[in-house]
Amino acid sequence: MSEIATPGEIPVCTWVRMDLHGFPPNFIGFTYVDREAGLSAKGGSQDDADVVEKPLHTVRLPIPGLPCTPLSEAEISQLGLPAMPSWVEECYGPQPAPGTVWGRWRHHPQLAGRFHPQFPDDLQVIVHDGGPRRTNRHPELAWVRVTGDEQDVFVGRLLNRPHQLATVSEGNEFQFVVPAGSPHPLMVTPKYLSERSDWVIQPCNKCGLSELFDAPSDLIKVIFPNAPAGTMVAFSSFCSACGGAQVVQHKSLPPGQAPPKPGRNAKKWWQIWR
Fold first, then answer.
1. CA-to-CA separations, 243 to 56, 238, 269, in angstroms, rounded
2. More confident residue, 263 or 87
3. 3-state class (DSSP) for residue 100
4. Are residues 142 and 161 in the same domain?
5. How far is CA 53 from the centre of its chain?
């Protein structure tokens, strides 16, 4: 028997059967991600000779109350269906791995209570061009449609046109995280994520934000332009959310050499070298 996926758990890149109340009859379709419209399925009657490569019907998913039933391997073989029609990646670009459950992020504890009540994949995210050390463009709060996730890093597509940002545009996809101390998720770059695991970021002393708007290496270049490359292991920076102070230290910093908390009388504590 085929496994029935609920409307919130529709597998991507999978042949499915749906009861569309007879229009068309015996509907089968292939699920895919449209970067503009989200999760969709193209198909038609299973008796249509062109249902694979020239499907006549597009269905935007999920449809409340209409379950999707993935076809079994036996059904796929009997109907002579390919693993993936040629039009999928030609027209809609790279797709998630076949069988990936669409919408699993809706149940992620870090996103609980953040989604729009009528659009279950949409939430507000802080988007930006970087922190105040690197740009004078202010961050903006924008609506984003979640399209994927990997552990605690999420992927989404920007639904709004930014008012004054230069590095992100309506329709762009980007990654974001949910920092401690922030009322909203925060856009991050691949460079930031590649460096993040090497650093300990102390929460802001005012708002508690636990992430940076910029990659540590980019901040070091701006704050300490004369520091030899790869030698800075601890520094402080203004919080990009509230203007407070954040202490950032490399995990290679020996025990006992952690910098003091920022204060008015602290002088050049950040100049800790390898």
1. 55, 5, 19
2. 87
3. coil
4. yes
5. 31
> Looking at the 3D structure of the chain, how many domains does it have?
3
Tell me which residue of 62, 71, 70 sits closest to 106, measured CA to CA.
62
140 Cα distance to chain centroid? 17
Q: Kindly state whether residues 76 and 108 are assigned to the same domain.
A: no
How buried is residue 51: exposed, middle or buried, by Cβ count under 10 Å (0-12/13-18/19+)? buried
Q: Look up the pTM and report it.
A: 0.77
Q: Is residue 68 part of a domain?
A: yes
Q: What are phi and psi of 74, to 5 degrees?
A: -65, -40
Query: Mind listing the pLDDT tens digit for each residue in 175-195?
Result: 999 999 899 999 999 999 999
Give a yes or no: residue 5 inside a domain.
no
Asked if the structure places residue 1 within a domain, the reply is no
Distances (CA, A) of 196 to 6, 135, 184: 36, 21, 19
Give the domain extent around 114: 103-188
Residue pointed to by tokens 């597509």: 157
